[in-house]
Write a structure and sequence with these properties.
Length: about 425
């Protein structure tokens, strides 16, 4: 085995893992298309400021997890840790504010320097959607419904729970922020160092703390719903009504928050216990202040992102791939004709392999290991008759077929 191994926190995707990975993205792309979302691919790296502005200087992603480096030209560049900021940057860079609403689906690799674990790598993959330009609660309902369709088509919806909360508008958030500061200030001597820093800059982030001492204090912290104004309550009520109309079940989680100032109103997560400890497989919310914070026009937005690796692990559905047809040429003339025949079959849509080396028995054994459905055996005698022997590798039945009739004969294996 080579001494060269993947960098810690990365892995190679091939075989069944690759097929399941592709299935998640293909289904996400197809479902998003039915909702009217076009696909977007943003650069795998952006100027660091794109993420520092949006993720906040106090976030773990910015302070501990981003892969940041300087280019030869002196620019500070960061491998994208998430894609919402990149989509918002693309929205501004390409002058899309005159084309609202804008709807995008994306899928691809993200990068965070964190402790690798099952379903979480330093290079990981996300699929997500962003809806820009819809300020009404119907946008939140559509985004969540899209997530439900996605999870149902993957066959994993039954293993998840939709947790829902509201973050209110700017006025409500300020009132809640003040209440949190007043509460946590009484426990400065018990807060972790990170949470002490957040108390001054972004107290909502304390609610996300993984520190055990912090979590005990969070248990008795004020509840966001107690500080919502009437507008925020009505907005959330309309979201819940919309989900009820679609028959989408949810649980209210008053501790579900987003710490960044541009988030507002709806926050949601689809969580599961099917992978061990409770984990999130798809999460999102409304971010009306994001584009303006990045220097663009005030633009409402809502979206979600999902972990492709976790969803692929959660799927139990069988990934069916086309079984190959194997051409086995026996003799010099057959070798030459086999390449032409393989090309013809591939153009006709058949997955086609060529079995060149070894005697006939060994080639048939290899064809069975490739899970082939049929073998096309070509020797001098068959070629003299412009024919080939087609052997069904499941039943063992075989027959002689004219070469110009092969495509029609093989239709049963599609």
């Amino acid at each position: 085995m080579s001494s060269l191994q993947p960098v810690r926190g990365t892995h190679d995707l091939f075989g069944e893992d690759m097929r399941r990975h592709r299935e998640v993205l293909d289904i996400g792309r197809a479902v998003a298309n039915r909702f009217g979302y076009d696909e977007i691919i943003t650069p795998i790296f952006e100027k660091t400021e794109v993420f520092k502005r949006t993720l906040g200087d106090t976030s773990d992603v910015v302070t501990k997890e981003m892969y940041t480096f300087s280019t030869k030209g002196g620019d500070e560049i960061t491998l994208r840790p998430e894609n919402t900021a990149g989509v918002a940057r693309a929205f501004m860079s390409n002058g899309l504010s005159q084309q609202l609403p804008v709807k995008f689906f994306y899928g691809g690799p993200m990068f965070r320097h964190e402790r690798p674990q099952k379903g979480r790598q330093r290079q990981f993959h996300q699929a997500g959607v962003e809806l820009l330009g819809v300020e009404k609660p119907q946008g939140d309902v559509e985004i969540i419904a899209l997530g439900v369709h996605f999870l149902k088509e993957l066959g994993v919806y039954g293993d998840t729970v939709l947790e829902l909360n509201t973050l209110g508008d700017t006025e409500s958030r300020k009132a809640y922020r003040d209440a949190l500061v007043a509460y946590f200030s009484k426990f400065k001597d018990q807060l972790s160092e990170d949470s002490l820093d957040r108390l001054e800059k972004n107290p909502l982030r304390i609610l996300d703390s993984k520190n055990e001492r912090d979590r005990k204090l969070v248990a008795d912290a004020p509840i966001f719903s107690d500080y919502l104004n009437d507008f925020s309550k009505d907005f959330f009520a309309q979201v819940k009504d919309g989900l009820d109309d679609l028959g989408i079940a949810y649980e209210i989680n008053p501790r579900l928050v987003r710490g960044l100032d541009y988030y507002c109103h709806t926050a949601f997560e689809f969580t599961t216990t099917a992978l061990g400890a409770q984990g999130t497989v798809l999460a999102g919310g409304r971010y009306d202040g994001l584009v303006k914070m990045m220097g663009g026009p005030a633009t409402p937005g809502v979206g979600w992102a999902s972990g492709v690796e976790r969803l692929a692990m959660l799927m139990t559905r069988e990934i069916v791939i086309a079984k190959p047809v194997v051409i086995i040429p026996m003799g010099e003339a057959a070798d030459k004709r086999a390449s032409v025949l393989a090309d013809e079959l591939r153009y006709a849509g058949y997955r086609t392999e060529l079995g060149y080396s070894g005697n006939l028995k060994k080639r048939l054994i290899r064809a069975n290991k490739q899970n082939a459905c049929a073998a096309i055996i070509m020797g001098d005698d068959e070629l003299a008759e412009n024919s080939a022997t087609v052997r069904d590798l499941v039943s063992g039945d075989q027959s002689v077929v004219k070469l110009d009739e092969l495509v029609e004969k093989l239709a049963i294996y599609r």
